[in-house]
Amino acid sequence: MATSVTVENLNPKVLKCQYALRGEIAIHAQRLQQQLQAEPGSLPFDEILYCNIGNPHSHGQQPVTFFREVLALCNHPCLLDKDETKSLFSADTILRARQILAAIPGGATGAYSDSQGIKGLRDAIASGIASRDGFSANADDIFLTGGASLAVHMIMQLLIRNEKDGILCPVPQYPLYSASIALHGGALVPYYLNESKGWAMEISELKKQLKDAHSKGIDVRALVVINPANPTGQVLSEDNQYAIVKFCKTEGLILLADEVYQDNIFVDNVKFSSFKKITRLMGYSEDDLPLISFQSASKGSYGECGKRGGYMEITGFSAPVREQIYKIASVNLCSNISGQILTSLVMNPPKPGDESYASYKAEKDGILQSLARRAKALEDAFNTMEGFTCNQAEGAMYLFPRIHLPQKAIEAAKAAKKAPDAFYALRLLESTGIVVVPGSGFGQVPGTWHIRCSILPQEGKIPALIYNLKAFHEAFMAEYRDQIVDTV
Q1: Across the chain, what does the average pLDDT equal?
Q2: Among 130, 151, 301, 465, which is least packed, fewest CB within 10 Å?
Q3: pTM score, two decimals?
Q4: C-alpha distances in angstroms, 373 versus 353, 393, 465?
């Protein structure tokens, strides 16, 4: 008799894993979208507005022309031999495509590459890192991956041996980390960002949570830092980064630096500095601190989520450990070649003097300036709504406003067997078609409630989004208003 497969006899680590970004509310949104397609006019809105994930092109953001033209020529190299190509593509686009194809064995983008990624592309990325930081980088330290998410999974697989191995993660945190730690059977050790101080990351909190974990017999192996932060949008100061590096050095922790939003900075007096740069400025060499930095082709002004390109730069690890990382990469064969090419372009875009530079810069600046305006408009809107408070987003693609819910709404959520912010988000979806993620999916201080809302809907849709959001909220508060309770 064949063994039946039930939820009860599945891997318990899979059952424990949660990923709120594509959870209940997103699934319900897809059902409503199908209903709208089958029965137009059957719902009180005419479209689903997905503000739940950072997926720029799905909202109409256009690809960066230089990146896509190079990719087109690489994937269809016979175009390089056609006379009309010179009139359709800029000279530096054609040159870059030829350089990339020369770096690919056989010039075949449809073939497997080395499991670590194509050496010539890793050389280009190392050059880009060195230019960004002012310190040298080595192509042998770079692993090209199917987006940063796969790199994170690889490292969790490497570090987590059992349920007593812990990873310090920010709360709120990008759910990839809690999901990956759960899948690999480890322990998430939370450290809380200080919302009242603009989501500050405080060393005293790190020390407190590390001490508490040790008291429970947890061997904390690494610290995750997301900078710029997802979902909260703050950008760390260099002084804060110095303190974080010193903390990791003192406590013997691996520093896992999620830097995929490094190009998404919206505030004039704020700048991004990589942790690689900070460690070198502090005088630490590779031998002093194990550091893994993650970057992606999915964010920034490029937003190429579907191409699944990214890398991790690994420094401070012995040769035997690096062999084990390479082995994990080999099990995955290799990341897709289009993603590898795009990642190299992200780290080496056109330079001043290149024919494509002016148009590239205009496209990039236009996208980032528009994102800044959208972020400010939504931030201002949330801060005018009863019971909402919203910190400024300095970077990334999201706002993470706090909502002080009436007790009557909290009781209604309890009766519906839902977290209060999930209850709110579900009602928002069913009334307006706006999809947000409840803060409970990211973690939050107990007794507080939040939503994460992306700033990605096109600028022309923001006024209607704000209007519908405010109208829904006023109706929701009118239905549930009582003495607002804030338990924190």
Answers
A1: 89
A2: 130
A3: 0.89
A4: 30, 11, 14
